[in-house]
Design brief:
The protein has about 300 residues and is of the alpha+beta class. Helices cover about 40% and strands about 20% of the residues. The protein folds into three domains: about 90 residues, Winged helix-like DNA-binding domain superfamily/Winged helix DNA-binding domain (Arc Repressor Mutant, subunit A, Orthogonal Bundle); about 90 residues, Periplasmic binding protein-like II (D-Maltodextrin-Binding Protein, domain 2), CATH 3.40.190; about 100 residues, D-Maltodextrin-Binding Protein, domain 2, CATH 3.40.190.290. β1 and β2 form a beta hairpin. α1 crosses α3. It is elongated, with a radius of gyration of 24 Å. The relative contact order is 0.14.
Length: about 300
């Protein structure tokens, strides 16, 4: 610690490091183990920080820790301060930031399995000092509560509290198996879709389609209720109905003839994008920056699933 700092400044700087560690590790006890101090001491120092700020930063429960709204804002500011200090030290020492240490990446289940996991071998070879963890989930995780450094999200809108880099557009097309179309006929127009078996995961209906005559809304009851987008794709391949699927999800099935496009002049609205998102700081960590650049290189136009 810089000897030019006053005792009060040294306490504040140390508590900022501690607070960041508590959030990163998800609990007071885990932060204490990581920093080599006891859990009671962590609790004492966190209470001191909250008294000095005059606000509660963390809700403590027996099962999990959650940041208050003030805690979220303060955490973003603390990360900015710590990143700026680390960057200043690297500049002063003449040592550029080298990616190293833990990196927790989250991605949607199907996208992660198809378009992230197969490419991670080259990444870990390029960055051997990064300790990579990949979590796959179709839920939008809370980056702070779940201790996620970087998440791949497929969405029309990124929350303003997150920083995002657009990796690509998620084109979505209507499709069904040739067997289903042979049994039930090919819909002549969008108006005929509600009379067919529609396949969608929970929350994915109604469909917002864009066609020659502008936007159209298609609603209905899913033929099978599921919370899994992967199940929707498998149901479509099995001939259970018509689905609105992303090209990254079904390109191989289209090429193999397991699926066929339906109403090819209509697609899902084009505002849905594929993003790499992380907590908003002026300077992302070297680990996060390395992964963002790597993913962007994988999906440079045209993406590997383009048809």
């Amino acid at each position: 610690m810089d000897d030019s700092l006053s005792p009060e400044e040294r306490i504040a700087a140390g508590d900022y490091d501690l607070f960041a560690a508590v959030v990163a590790h998800g609990s007071l006890a885990a932060a204490g183990r990581a920093l080599g101090i006891s859990a009671p001491m962590v609790s004492k120092r966190m209470a001191r920080l909250e008294r000095r700020l005059g606000t509660r930063l963390i809700h403590r429960t027996t099962r999990r820790m959650a940041l208050t709204e003030a805690g979220r804002r303060f955490h973003q500011d603390v990360l900015t301060i710590l990143a700026a200090v680390a960057a200043a030290e690297r500049t002063a020492s003449g040592q550029p930031g080298r990616p190293r240490g833990p990196l927790r990446l989250s991605a949607p289940t199907s996208f992660g399995r198809l378009h992230v996991a197969p490419h991670l071998g080259r990444f870990v070879e390029s960055y051997p000092d990064i300790e990579l963890t990949l979590d796959l989930s179709d839920a939008f995780s809370d980056l702070i509560a779940d201790r996620i450094d970087l998440a791949v999200r497929i969405t029309a809108q990124v929350p303003p509290q997150l920083a995002a880099r657009r990796l690509g557009t998620s084109r979505r097309i209507l499709c069904a198996s040739p067997a289903y179309l042979a049994r039930h006929g090919v819909p002549a127009d969008v108006a005929a879709l509600p009379r067919h078996r529609l396949l969608a995961a929970t929350g994915q209906l109604p469909w917002r389609l864009i066609g020659p005559d502008g936007p159209t809304l298609v609603d209905g009851i899913p033929a099978v209720r599921t919370n899994s987008s992967e199940v929707v794709r498998e149901l479509a391949v099995a001939g259970a109905g018509i689905a609105l699927r992303s090209l990254w999800d079904v390109t191989r099935d289209l090429a193999a003839g397991r699926l066929a496009r339906v109403l090819p002049d209509h697609e899902g609205s084009a505002d849905v994008g594929i993003y790499a998102v992380h907590q908003r700081t002026p300077l992302p960590s070297p680990n996060v920056a390395a992964m963002i650049d790597y993913l962007a290189g994988l999906y440079d136009p045209p993406p590997p699933w383009a048809v």
